[in-house]
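Possible race condition, two jobs.
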Amino acid sequence: MKNFKYIVVFLIGLPFFAVGQTVLTLEEAIAITLENNFDLRIAKNEVKINEENVSLGNAGMLPRVNGVVTNNNTILNTKQTQSNGNEIEIDGAKNLNLNYGVGLEWTIFDGFSMFARHNQLKEIQKLGETELKLNVLAKVSEVYDTYYILVNQQHLIRSLDSIIAVSEFRLKTAQTRFTIGKASKLEVLNAEVDYNADVSAKIRLKEQYAISKIALNQLLVRPSETDFTVTDVILIDETLKLTDLLGLAQEQNPELQIQYINKKIQEYELKQVKAARYPSLSLSTGYNFIRSESPFGFITQTSGQNFNYGFTASINIFDGFNQNRNERTSKIQLENTQLQIDRQKQAVNAQISSFYQSYLSNLALLEMEQKNEKIARQNLEITLDKFKIGTISPVEFRTAQVNYANAVIRLTNAELLTKQTEISLKEIAGNLSF
């Protein structure tokens, strides 16, 4: 038993790796999520759709060519009386009118609306790409958060193992003392209650750990029962600066970038509305084949071809002041997009400033809890030595044990909270690594 405290210290520093379990690194978790996650795959397909829509034809710049076939047939019974008095009666007479050919229509000028539309389609493509980045950042942030929750829970389980080992030692000591008549049954019962409480706490924590694993497997689109363990280190970036984060956010925050793109889209929308003030010019041409058959008259069959061409020019002279109304409405919508940009800037700055204050506080708490955990561990080791030689009571020993357990919990929670605020800051700044 003289080496027991060294066993406890060893348990405290022992990585929580189960034999046979696959170690899933954070990088692997992110890579699997980016490849498999359903939301991201849907967002990627939306980007592909927007890419397909950026075309000259969709913008109205290319001509439209149509092939047309018209075939009209008539069957009738008729009786004709000619000028010379002769009568002709035909049953089941068939008339045929066949017309087929190709036609081309091409709007060659529409007040530059087609060019504005083409540029607008490009901005819509950029919008889809930026929305994809926003989704990626959100999912990666969720993976980060869930992963480090698992690391935190592994730390707590490992620490509980050392606490349980101490409680088990105390229980066996009490039972031995009771056997030789140096302790009462009450001491044994108290030790057993404390031991059971520690085991119960571990059972509850392992349940939370299992649920967190299921949540991460869901993000990775893997079977919920897939077993794994995570790495055992939480590295805190202590170099974040408020001014740098605010500057990065103005350039990289996806939600802010979306507002910028929406403004561009609305600017091109206004250009399309203004284009209605200009004249519109369209060209048209076609080539047709004609054939007709009739059993009546002097000409019973006709066939031919024709080529047609022309143009159409139009200009809006008066439309009940709708043009002016449409332009005013579009300008107001453009003004709203600028207001949305200003609002988003303020929201982003407020979010970063708020999280940064939490980040600084958590760093200070983390440093304090690291020192406190060392003190609590040292206190537990001294108390354990005194307990073994019988110079302190079981109550004092349990108090030192509980103090150390609480110190470990506060330290691991401080590590997790600090990492979570770091992740949130980088996500808002659009600078989260993945």
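Job #2 (started ~2 s after job #1):
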Amino acid sequence: MAPFLVVLDVDSTLIEDEVIELLAAEAGALDAVATITSEAMNGRLDFAASLEARVATLAGLPETAFAAVLDRVTVTRGVEELVAGVHRAGGFVGVVSGGFHEIVDTLAERLGLDYWRANRLEVADGFLTGRVRGDIIDARAKADTVTEWASDCGVALRQTVAVGDGANDLEMMSITGLSVGFDAKAPVRDEADVIMDVRDLAQVLPLLGLPRP
């Protein structure tokens, strides 16, 4: 049995950015999207509805924008150390995101993650349609994903760790053995077991009894 599974949110956790906002900037819709994102992450808007509203502003954006956005993404300090430390101890690391596979896939492969899941944007004839393909990865889907991955790698839920910052992370946090609010919004600060305000994900290692590099 693996010793533990660490599952992180992506936007503003694994990375310093909100990908939907980077895409919106390419589409000239940043101000409107940033306002909706803030409301959703603070739990004042339904996540699925807010995502659909934000994605709708991307209609007509060429799919070449994904490469431009990926070049602007900054991985949060300490991610590589966290992944390496967990792997050395025989554990697993995954990310589950209300963001998009078009960006997450490349990041996950670069970082050597074991699991990842995110939304997919619909593209037709080389342009975004303004819709999401398939079911939306919302708070319930995040929790279900943690349960699925824990079963897959043989880790009890009490040995799982969830790291996130927004209201849509609360359901997965509620089922894990340890929840970490990472530079978190108000709803998460009220519920998380541990609050981290320094943006360095290697800080998670000592919580697992593992040394920092």
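The radius of gyration is 16 Å.
Logs attached separately.
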